[in-house]
């Protein structure tokens, strides 16, 4: 077996995310009014719990699998139609890894 010859190197680790400004979307859902909760009749903790239940119910009922599939297609289309939907940044720099010359990225290309 041929012995590998390692070369000196720098290492750049990049993190790639979908750009938040690109993929955020707000959806407004109108419903009939829910019953009002009077803060004095419920503790603050119970009041927040009831409001959270309402939000969860609307979210569950509105965002069906069909709606999720529509949103996925909308986002896929936006990604495909733009030049670069990514936020790319160097998250770490290092060096001296055991790599061979053919593993180095050629910056001259």
Percentage of residues in helical conformation: 25-40%
| SSE topology string | EEHHHEE
Main sheet, how many strands, which sense, barrel?
2 strands, antiparallel
Helix run count: 3
What does this molecule look like?
Helix content is 37%, strand content 21%. With 109 residues, it is of the alpha+beta class. The radius of gyration is 26 Å and the shape is elongated. The protein starts with 5 loop residues before the first strand and ends in a 9-residue tail after the last strand. The model has no long low-confidence stretch (mean pLDDT 91).
Task: Summarize the helices and strands and which ones pair or pack.
Elements: E1 6-7, E2 10-18, H1 20-23, H2 44-62, H3 65-81, E3 86-95, E4 99-100
Antiparallel strand pairs: 1-4, 2-3
Features:
single chain; 109 residues; alpha+beta; two-stranded antiparallel ribbon; two-stranded antiparallel sheet; elongated
